[in-house]
Amino acid sequence: MRGLTHPASTTEAKKLWPAVRAAHIIANRDEFMRYHEGHPEWVRVSRAGDVLVLGRWRAHLDLLAIRGLWAPIERMGPLLDQVRLLAESWGRGGIVSPLVAESLAGPYREVGMVDQVRLVAFTRAVGAATEPRSLRSRGVRLATADDLPALVDVDGRCFDAFWLMGPEEFARSFASERLTVYEHPDGGIVGYAACALSGASVTISRLAVLPETRRCGIATALLAECVSWSREVRALGVSLCTQEENLASRGLYVMMGFVEMVERYVLLTVDAHSAR
Hints:
This protein is of the alpha+beta class. It is 34% helix and 30% strand. The protein contains nine helices and 13 strands. Strands 1, 2, 3, 4, 5, 6, 7, 8, 9, 10, 11, 12 and 13 form a 13-stranded mixed beta sheet that branches. A hairpin with a 2-residue loop joins strand 10 and strand 11 (201-209). Helix 1 (10-22) packs across helix 2.
């Protein structure tokens, strides 16, 4: 059937890198090629020029993630149906959409996917505000492999099962992102942030602070350090997302010079075994 995909060859995968880079799916070309070599069935193309980049959502969940999808709207339905069949054949219980602007979510909803979460995007220019130097230096340091158990613990106390990361996810984060931690004066890691440079912009993918230590300037310090690093690597801007209902985080980002985007973004999910 026209439009259905097959695993991309190495040559085809190389040609896909500009689109993958533009979508901020994977940090660099070498990492993307390793991703393709390790899981060739997850990078898929069709004769019609459609592209799918798939993967695991979280190691502890049986969800197949659509990390990227490029196709005309009229072919998205058959492609999403194929993803459902692939998920079933690979023993996955459900599917997670890529992060999509709400105005573009129609094709996913038409195949039965429902909103899992609504997100608000924020952006700011690197030099748009001055970060408090005293906060930026106090308690913040680069994470090391020895911090892995503490990072997993912080994550487990800050996020629900859909979002939390385990050792496997943190291993990938160490390989592709810049991880910083906040170490409390009394000892112990109480928060962390993850960010990465992609093109001319830095994306902050993760910010977590233990509930009992919030509202003490820790998140501000971690954010300020990310922005400071963005300046060091000559990025033009910094971006991040948070859940729409997370009013505390939204207020913090605005205070730190971020501008809230009007467009909302959504992640959608569906049971892989449900009929369309």
